[in-house]
């Protein structure tokens, strides 16, 4: 499995990639433009997307991404209001997890999304 983590906080980006490490490898992007470019230039099994990004916010990234890709996206952000969750899901996110988050919950949600998109994906228990 290959993941892309689009999160501007360097330490948090690394922490998220560490969480997903048991499921596969991951790339990092630290702003919306870089993240969108990487998402469009490479093949990923799952994208973890923050909304509060420099250069292009996560809603804009998701909107552009959905014009060209069906890659699953989990929004992971500090924006936790119901209207933001609804907006993200309506723009095409597959899941929405507000910060602060539990690392095990993130992994479980990633596994659930991957099961829906990839019939060959099975978690190792």
Describe this structure in words.
- With 125 residues, this protein is an alpha/beta fold.
- The protein is 43% helix and 18% strand.
- The protein has 5 helices and 5 strands.
- The chain has helices at residues 10-20, 32-41, 58-66, 82-90, 103-117, and strands at residues 2-6, 25-29, 46-49, 73-77, 95-98.
- A 5-stranded parallel β-sheet has the order 2-1-3-4-5, sandwiched between helices.
- Helix 2 (32-41) packs parallel to helix 3.
- The chain is globular.
- The mean pLDDT is 94.
Order of helices and strands: EHEHEHEHEH
Basic shape: globular
Number of strands: 5
Which spans have pLDDT < 50 for at least 5 consecutive residues? none
Strand order of the largest sheet: 2-1-3-4-5
- Which percent range describes the beta-strand content? 15-25%
Task: Specify the biggest β-sheet.
Answer: 5 strands, parallel
Rg over alpha carbons: 13 Å
**Which quaternary structure do these chains form?**
single chain
Helix content: 40-55%
Query: Could you give the distance between the termini?
Result: 17 Å
Helix/strand class: alpha/beta
- Tally of DSSP helical segments: 5
Mean pLDDT score, rounded?
A: 94
